[in-house]
Amino acid sequence: MPGLVDQSGDNNEPLEGAPKKAQHTWEESMLQSLDRLRVDVRSKDPYIIARNCDSIFQDEVFRFSYWGNLISIHWPNLEAFDAAGKPLSTFDTAMLTFYLQTADGEPMADRWIGFRELPNGVFYNQAFQGYSGNRVANTFGDKPDRFNEAATLLGGWKLSGLADHAFAFQPLPRIRLAATLWPGDEEFPSKASILFDASASHYMTTDGLALLGSGLTGRLIKQLK
After folding, report:
1. Whole-number Å distance between alpha carbons of 192 and 214
2. Where are the alpha helices (DSSP H) in 103-205?
3. Phi/psi at 121 (nearest 5 deg)?
């Protein structure tokens, strides 16, 4: 199972394939905000937070699944650990703290949207497509069976009516992503996209969703190695 070191499954490359400027901007934004985020989260009722993000809060600890791994976040210091009790990276801790801060309990929409439809997503859509959907298309466009295999190994479930090949994933309890692939032929190039449930912005910032989308891309590609 992919580790919790970062969103792509590869050490120190949470936005693997993204322009270096985007990597620096989004990583720094998250990591420098961690102390402020913790202060803000501590000002809220932990039981309401747990209800909003669909987690268990018991014995001063939040527990929920993150990319298929059980994690715990201790209150009130908001330090995060894996199932074996090992501290998570600062990057993953920041991602999870953003989730606790942002979650408002909005029901899942069961409707897919592209990155450009997220708040301010239109400004970064081209960059996001470059290091997410385009990488998926370049990697799996001529081997859709391997795409299906990789998606299944990552715990994805098949979607119908969305694309030739499409799978949904649940990196966090109330954040759902989809990876879609249209294999190319002699006339048309392969196409792929990473999509989001329309409620996603109720649970994570747009920057954070970009990182989750990049992470899904990296995890799919890693299955080929």
Report:
1. 13
2. 125-131, 133-140, 144-153
3. -70, -25
Neighbours of 43 (CB within 10 A): 8
pLDDT in tens, 72-127: 999 999 999 999 999 998 889 989 999 999 999 999 999 999 999 999 999 999 99
For the chain, which residues make up each domain, given as ranges?
A: 20-102, 112-222
Tokens 């879609």 found at = 180
Structure token digits, residue 141: 């466009």
pTM of the model: 0.87
Take residue 224 and report the two structure tokens written for it. Answer: 């080929």
**Hey, what amino acid is at 88?**
L
Q: Which two tokens stand for residue 176?
A: 């759902």
Element (H, E) at 181: strand 175-182
Query: Which fold, 112-222?
Result: TATA-Binding Protein (3.30.310)
Q: 123-132 pLDDT, tens per residue? A: 999 999 999 9
**Interstrand relation of 56-58 and 61-66 (parallel, antiparallel or unpaired):** antiparallel
Mean of all residue pLDDT scores within the chain: 89
- Residue whose token pair is 């391997």: 146
